[in-house]
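**Folding the chain**
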Amino acid sequence: MRESNSKLLAEIGELRKKFAEIKVENDELKDKNIEIPELRRKFTKLEAEKAEFKARIAEVLKQGVEENKRHDAMVEELEQKNTVLEARLAILEQGSLAVDGQSQNDSHFEKAAIIPEPVAVQLKQHIPDCETKDAVSEVHLH
């Protein structure tokens, strides 16, 4: 009987040791369970911030696209104005040479000005009536 009592006492000791380990593990899990609602709240808050950032990014991208369209239109308009001004300059230079008594076939102007037809029409409207206006009709239209 002594032998069986000592075995039982040893087993009880082992069980108490296991119980203490399980109690520590249980306490750790309770602490983690307390953290879960707080983590869920933080996660929900982060998800809301993420949605706000996504909306803000979409808004900024949309503004960027609109700004790019405005810049593209402005560049196109400036390029058209530049073409008109270059054509007017070429016509004025040709007219200036004719006024100075030099031939329009002078070596300085071996290349004819190439002006798109809509630009030439605009030039005819903007150039005052003088000899240079006649030069517009001499410019090769493209």
In short: The chain has a mean pLDDT of 81. Residues 2-99 form the longest helix (98 residues). The chain has one domain: 2-141. Residues 2-141 form one domain.
